[in-house]
Amino acid sequence: MIDLKGYGHFLIEGLTVTLSVALVSMVGAMVLGLLGAAAKLSTHKVLRRIGSAYTTIIRGVPDLVLLLLVFYGGTVLLQWIACWFGRIEPIDINAFITGALVVSFIYGAYATEVFRGAFQAVPKGQIEAAKACGMSRWLCFQRIQLPQVWRFALPGLGNVWLLLLKGTAIISVVGLEELARKADMMTRNVKAPFTVYGLTILIFLALTVLSEIALKTAEKRAAAGVRRA
Question: CB atoms < 10 A from the CB of 180, how many?
Fold first, then answer.
């Protein structure tokens, strides 16, 4: 029997925060991924360059450095702007919002490549046939491209989700008490690092297994009725 000395609720509280950040960030990452993919596939050169710059820069900058830059640098910037308008009270940035936005921004770059590949996987003949039938670009996107894009993108988005889920641990450095930070706090009280961190690892593994089961189920449903060549 594992004796957590009454601190077991720390892991539950941390898990709640981790899942909240992960879910919010995943939604943000998918939105940014769709926008990034649209930019990279655009016929406009400026949009293509913006999309390429986004994925190149974000994937090349360490996640931790970007988080610290936004959190601490953003605080300084907002304080400077406030002082310029005559406000001298200290300004604090919300750690949850900052963490979710940064994680969304980071993994949105990976989602961009997933969606770009998914859009390119849709047979061009179907799009040309839709245009020949008089469909507008939006109607073609809504009825022809989007349903197939989700099917093609699901495996890649699953990988992004699993990476993002583990990546939420970096937000502990800005004071947000997610699972990793709660485990650290719990270790200082329980004095059993092997037990606490072992349980933390098992929780992340359980989340991974459940996520993979859900993703496989979603892939099967998305592929239902699709003809195999």
Answer: 21
Alpha-carbon span 93 to 58, nearest angstrom: 22
Length of the chain: 229
Kindly report, residue by residue over 96-119, the tens digit of the pLDDT: 888 899 999 999 999 999 999 998
Enumerate residues 6+ apart whose C-beta is below 8 A from 200. 11, 179, 180, 183
CB 78 within 8 A of CB 70: no
Q: Which residues make Cβ contacts (< 8 Å) with residue 170, sequence separation at least 6?
A: 63, 64, 67, 103
Which token pair is 229? 């060549």
Sign, CA dihedral 190-193-195-196, equals: positive
Q: Which helix (H) or strand (E) holds 26?
A: helix 9-40
Predicted model pTM: 0.86
Distance from C-alpha of 63 to C-alpha of 70, rounded to nearest angstrom:
11
